[in-house]
């Protein structure tokens, strides 16, 4: 049985069983390794992708539930203006340390800026609290989100 | 100067390892347009058996070609001895090399060596990324290698231009003859330079020629880390690769009694069930399929003496050990009896810290391809020499047969010094005819399979004189000997450095001192955790110093100054952090301050924590940090390591701990092992103190002062003396 998906605006047919989490379809079947495995139970946010306009944890999202849905992964983040602004701010602020969680952080931040173009610190805390960073880069993540928001408003 | 893209792209031009040169590409590097020969200047030392770690070993004459390759296209590739696990070390080491060499920063690439050779050894003889050695140890050897290479290129250019070498300088990837304005690119000189004898006494650039070090440079790995292109060990791919999930004994060190591979035969994708130490690897076409089968596998483990072990019981053993009789001294100074004969005041306190997991965001994994006479390991390891030794022993490979493709590490913190996943992947690859197998542990495996930071208790007893000075200090720690468990011999037969560093070498001037270690063996495997012993000895010592100061009726800063005369580095960071925090002026309403200072890995770090109570919980709002790491190579990354160290230490001081019940860990993921999340991070203000000290470490020294500084603030806020971590145990977090 195969499932048809739209990943980063590209039509993709995958053969993994319907109950397979999207994370493993991306990583092991499609070879898209930017989406990371951190916990497998939706607690750390390392696997955050977008399904439609919403953030989703790929590790607990069965691929069978995504037929004909639009999925965006980190590999497609630079396709939109918000994504590029965030990536630029992440580089300018030298945000990542080990970097393993950062793809998920960026995907969560992109949803935040889409819905809240001028986020407050509280908005950022609420939107990003599901993404753990073991290196403790939260201060620079926060600064980079504010900076991207400023860049997008001009 | 652009600092980012080309070096970061090395990972794309050197597949399949993220930034290791594979054998096929060894000596070849992809240039911008064509394949060109990358020439090592100075022969590499061949692989040699992994040596034990004797106390002293002869100095290594490191070949510059082990660190620097230059292509005829002028692309410079640095082979770096330290892995990149977040500490920014590839950028710092590349800065040191590029500056001394005179390389064009926009055209340098980074890679890691494939084999274990003496050239990449630390002073103790290991090829590892530990001990915050990345800059403090490697600065000088890397600089020397770059100076040797620069002199080779200069000699080749002098010959070509028929000018004296002294009339030439190296800048931006060229050898320049300023008098005539002629410039020869490095790439045009490497063929001629590579046959010249390597200069053994190269002249180092003077400080005024520094162009890179000392300035904040953007990290070379960031562009790939924000696009998903950066490759970690878990992202490695190889043709014909299969995936492995593990099913390991939940009780520490239990062996397999029986297992029934038929219980998973026929499950989708399953290829093999491979016995490994303490369990099995299930090999399948995808990791998800392997994991489903691992959960279903019928497997029984033998009973062990550890089946009933629990945290309360281990705590009881440690408490009893604190009360026990005379032990051999780990440190003895002066005359304890005299110090306690007529003290003005005696201060006593017991402290305790729990087991901790490392919880790297990237769970433990390794890919192996085990051929008859060659083992390839795609991994993110902090300790190539340990993997070489253990895989060599388990798989019968000679040192020169083992190849490392060391990728980025999604966190290390000391955990990735161990070889379990490499051995599992090697055995699994053998079982499937030498196909590459990537073994990945689940988060629960990662959290429950041990290799913890040790749990420890400590009893402190001090005799103060009438001036409030500590005359005598009696320290007993109780707990395991993590160093000995990891094969490190005890100094003088009693001193386990991995348990006692931070006490036996502490900086306070105390005339009479006695330290001993009541050993309480533990069943679980233990491994270094960021700052090793200092992560708890820093807490014991500094929390107690704060209590002594209170007992003496002195300000904690003044009390420290009084005991640190003749320690200018400690005093300098204390003064700087006090200035930053406005120490001595009243704290804002509701805010309590706590102070601590610890020297570890060659760098004293002082911290002032500012915290308040919110709904009965301690909320840290601000942490002032001052570090003396000698000279900051990349100051922005020193700041990152300080704020990261604070968050790391705060996570475990507030809430995270591992507890044991029936011989197994009770925690399994980030729900019950709670790491700090966005919104809980304090503001961290870092000050780098430069007073001409020798180079010190940066990755670890930010951790130890946080817990005692926090404990001091929490004790003021709660009115209860905090002597046990995490604070959540006292309902304060």
Would you write up a description of this structure?
The complex is a heterodimer of chains A (154) and B (733). Chain A is of the alpha+beta class. Chain A folds into two domains: 74 residues, Beta-grasp domain (Ubiquitin-like (UB roll), Roll); 74 residues, DNA polymerase, domain 1, CATH 1.10.150.120. Helix content of chain A is 38%, strand content 14%. A five-stranded mixed beta sheet of chain A has the order 2-1-5-3-4, sandwiched between helices. In chain A, strand 3 and strand 4 form a beta hairpin. Chain B has 733 residues and is α+β, with helices and mostly antiparallel strands. Chain B folds into three domains: 221 residues, Aldehyde Oxidoreductase, domain 4; 149 residues, Aldehyde Oxidoreductase, domain 4; 323 residues, 2-Layer Sandwich (Aldehyde Oxidoreductase, domain 4), CATH 3.30.365. Chain B contains 20 helices and 28 strands. Chain B has a seven-stranded mixed beta sheet. Chain B has a five-stranded mixed beta sheet with strand order 1-2-3-4-5. In chain B, helix 11 runs parallel beside helix 12 and helix 16 crosses helix 20. Chain B is globular, with a radius of gyration of 27 Å. Chains A and B meet through helix 1, helix 2, helix 3, helix 4 and helix 5 of A and helix 7 and helix 19 of B.
Q: How many beta-strand elements of chain A? A: 5
CATH topology of the largest domain in chain B: Aldehyde Oxidoreductase, domain 4
CATH architecture annotation of the largest domain in chain A: Roll
Whole-number average pLDDT of chain B? 93
Q: CATH class of the largest domain in chain B, anyone? A: Alpha Beta
Largest interface, Cβ cutoff 8 Å: A-B, 60 and 63 residues
Task: Based on the model shown, name its key terms.
heterodimer, A: 154 residues, alpha+beta, Ubiquitin-like (UB roll), DNA polymerase, domain 1, 5-stranded mixed sheet, 5 helices, 14% strand, globular, B: 733 residues, Aldehyde Oxidoreductase, domain 4, 3 domains, 7-stranded mixed sheet, 20 helices, 28 strands, disordered N terminus
């Amino acid at each position: 049985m195969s499932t048809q998906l739209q990943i980063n605006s590209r039509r993709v047919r995958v053969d993994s069983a319907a109950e397979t989490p999207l994370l493993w379809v991306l990583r092991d079947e499609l070879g898209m390794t930017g989406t990371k495995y951190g916990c497998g139970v939706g607690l750390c946010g390392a696997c955050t992708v977008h399904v439609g306009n919403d953030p989703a944890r790929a590790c607990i999202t069965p691929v069978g539930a995504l037929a004909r849905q639009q999925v965006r992964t980190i590999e497609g983040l630079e396709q939109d203006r918000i994504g590029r602004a965030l990536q630029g701010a992440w580089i300018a602020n030298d945000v990542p340390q080990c970097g393993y969680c950062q793809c998920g952080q960026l995907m969560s931040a992109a949803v935040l800026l889409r819905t809240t173009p001028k986020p407050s610190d509280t908005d950022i805390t609420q939107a990003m609290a599901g993404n753990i960073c073991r290196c403790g880069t939260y201060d620079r993540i926060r600064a980079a989100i504010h900076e991207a928001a400023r860049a997008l408003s001009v | 100067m652009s600092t980012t893209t080309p070096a970061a792209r090395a990972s794309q031009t050197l597949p399949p390892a993220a930034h290791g040169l594979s054998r096929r590409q060894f000596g070849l590097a992809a240039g911008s347009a064509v394949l060109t020969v990358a020439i090592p200047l100075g022969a590499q030392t061949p692989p040699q058996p992994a040596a034990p770690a004797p106390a002293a070993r002869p100095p290594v004459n490191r070949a510059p070609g082990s660190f620097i390759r230059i292509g005829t296209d002028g692309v410079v590739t640095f082979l770096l001895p330290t892995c990149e696990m977040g500490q920014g070390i590839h950028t710092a080491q590349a800065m040191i090399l590029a500056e001394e060499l005179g390389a064009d920063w926009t055209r340098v690439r980074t890679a890691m060596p494939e084999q274990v050779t003496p050239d990449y050894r630390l002073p103790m003889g290991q090829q590892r990324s530990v001990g915050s050695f990345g800059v403090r140890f490697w600065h000088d050897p890397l600089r020397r290698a770059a100076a040797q290479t620069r002199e080779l290129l200069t000699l080749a250019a002098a010959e070509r231009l028929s000018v004296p070498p002294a009339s030439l300088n190296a800048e931006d990837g060229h050898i320049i003859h300023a008098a005539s304005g002629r410039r020869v690119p490095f790439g045009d000189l490497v063929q001629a330079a590579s046959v010249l004898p390597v200069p053994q006494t190269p002249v180092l650039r003077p400080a005024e020629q520094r162009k890179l070090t000392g300035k904040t440079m953007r990290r070379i790995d960031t562009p790939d880390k924000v696009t998903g292109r950066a490759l970690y060990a878990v992202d490695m791919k190889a043709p014909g690769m299969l995936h492995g999930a593990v099913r390991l004994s939940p009780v520490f060190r239990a062996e397999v009694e029986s297992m029934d591979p038929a219980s998973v035969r026929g499950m989708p994708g399953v290829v093999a069930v491979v016995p490994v130490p303490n369990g099995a690897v299930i090999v399948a076409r995808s990791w998800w399929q392997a994991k489903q089968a691992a959960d279903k596998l019928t497997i029984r483990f033998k009973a062990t003496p550890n089946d009933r072990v629990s945290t309360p019981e281990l705590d009881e053993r440690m408490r009893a050990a604190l009360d026990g009789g005379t032990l051999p001294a780990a440190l003895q100074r002066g005359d304890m009896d005299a110090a306690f004969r007529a003290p003005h005041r005696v201060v006593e306190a017991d402290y305790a810290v729990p087991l901790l997991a490392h919880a790297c965001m990237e769970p433990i994994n390794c890919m192996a391809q085990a051929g008859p006479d060659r083992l390839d390991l795609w991994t993110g390891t902090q300790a190539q020499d340990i993997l070489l030794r253990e895989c060599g022993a388990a798989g019968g490979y000679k040192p020169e047969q083992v190849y490392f493709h060391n990728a980025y590490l999604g966190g290390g913190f000391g955990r990735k010094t161990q070889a379990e996943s490499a051995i599992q992947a090697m055995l699994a690859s053998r079982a499937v005819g030498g196909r590459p197998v990537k073994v990945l542990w689940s988060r629960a495996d990662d959290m429950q399979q041990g290799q913890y930071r040790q749990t420890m208790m400590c009893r402190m007893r001090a005799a103060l004189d009438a001036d409030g000075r500590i005359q005598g200090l009696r320290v007993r720690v109780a707990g395991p000997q993590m160093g000995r468990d990891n094969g490190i011999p005890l100094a003088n037969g009693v001193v386990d450095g991995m348990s006692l560093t931070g006490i036996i070498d502490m900086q306070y001037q105390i005339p009479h001192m006695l330290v001993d270690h009541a050993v309480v063996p533990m069943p679980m495997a233990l491994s270094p955790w960021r700052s090793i012993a200092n992560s708890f000895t820093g807490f014991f010592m500094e929390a107690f110093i704060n209590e002594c100061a209170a007992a003496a009726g002195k300000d904690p800063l003044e009390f420290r100054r009084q005991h640190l005369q003749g320690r200018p580095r400690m005093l300098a960071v204390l003064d700087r952090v006090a200035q930053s925090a406005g120490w001595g002026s009243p704290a804002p309403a509701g805010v309590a301050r706590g102070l601590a200072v610890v020297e570890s890995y060659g760098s004293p770090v002082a911290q002032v924590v500012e915290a308040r109570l919110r709904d009965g919980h301690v909320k840290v709002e601000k942490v002032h940090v001052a570090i003396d790491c000698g000279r900051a190579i990349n100051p922005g990354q020193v700041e990152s390591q300080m704020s990261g160290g604070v968050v790391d230490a705060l996570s475990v001081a507030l809430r995270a701990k591992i507890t044991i019940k029936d011989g197994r860990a009770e925690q399994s993921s980030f729900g019950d092992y709670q790491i700090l999340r966005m919104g809980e991070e304090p503001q961290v203000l870092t000050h780098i103190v430069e007073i001409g000290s020798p180079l010190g470490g940066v990755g670890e020294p930010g951790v130890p002062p946080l817990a005692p500084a926090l404990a001091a603030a929490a004790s003021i806020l709660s009115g209860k003396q905090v002597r046990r971590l995490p604070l959540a145990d006292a309902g304060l977090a």
